[in-house]
Design a protein that fits this description.
seven-stranded parallel sheet; single chain; 9 helices; globular
Amino acid sequence: MTPGNDAGGRGRTALVTGGTGGMGRVIAAKLAADGFDVAVAYTGEMDLADAAVSEIKERGRQGAAFAADIADEHEVADLFHAVDGQFGGLDVVVHTAGINRAAALTDLDLADFDAIHRVNVRGTFVVDQQAARRVRGGGSIVNVSSQAVRLAPAALSAYTASKAAIDALTRILAKELRGRDITVNAVAPGPTTTAAFLASTPAEEQEQLAAVPPLGRLGRPEDIADVVSFLVGPTGRWVNGQVVYANGGFI
């Protein structure tokens, strides 16, 4: 049996939120290479969504993109309904969508605080709620957290708090899905060379961060995609209710 098919030959489907971002897009392509048909949810530019779908199809799988505000429960319900209708079911949900605003706690605008928690906390709750209702037995839900929860870096209070909430939601949902044969985990990356990270991080700081892990480099989106692939694949079924730190030993 391959990851993309169950014992009865049924095709398997994954949904990746934030699937046009640097990390989500690579995860979507990796899941397609593993044999999944892949739907990507996105906000923003349609050309990026089209490119993500093209990468999926290049790997011989079906792909589709759906625009949705992942913190809006009605749009997310419509998203899951559309994926279910087009692909005939859903086996894996990987929730990568999230935002960040860096500022000291004393200086952070509360409008930024509200935006972070709307997307990162409410968005995760809404997506996980629909995933829990629709993912088939034998499937998986994976949220993207951050090593910031353990490291507690200055100037990232709201972001770190939002990711800590994701960790808690992940562990609780894993318990609530008892008896459903669905695993629920989170991946907590360290600094990873997405386009957004490279654009927002000065070269000197990138060098400093790369020197911290024993492996002596920054993470790559492919590193995170490989961990997700393991968690949703047949060899990862005994990992459940966990936050997996994928950071090269950063901390």
